[in-house]
Amino acid sequence: MPTPRDSMAHEAFVQLSCPECSKTWESTPSELPAHDENFSCPECHATRRMALFTRTDRDLENLKRLQ
Fold it and tell me: N or C: where does the chain have the smaller number of CB atoms within 10 Å of the terminal CB?
């Protein structure tokens, strides 16, 4: 018999950090561009490749894997 936890949608989050202003936040991979596309910080609007905004190598791996 399924438990309430089993029926909950599980979506991974990627930890992000702006290389310019150091703002940190998280987002789902489906809300982000591909790792090799440009992305702009919602705080300071600095634009870099999406991969440069991931906080850790694991976050980058998850972004690539889940898109």
Answer: N
CA distance 29 to 37: 13
Long-range contacts, stretch 19-24, CB < 8 angstroms, 24+ apart: 19/46, 19/48, 19/52, 19/53, 20/44, 20/46, 21/46, 24/55
The four Cα atoms 60, 35, 16, 52 give a dihedral, to 10 degrees, of 90
Tens digit of each residue's pLDDT (9 = 90 or more) over 22-66: 999 999 999 999 999 999 999 999 999 999 999 999 999 999 999
Angstrom distance (rounded) from CA 53 to CA 36: 11
Closest CA to 14 of 31, 32, 27, 1: 27
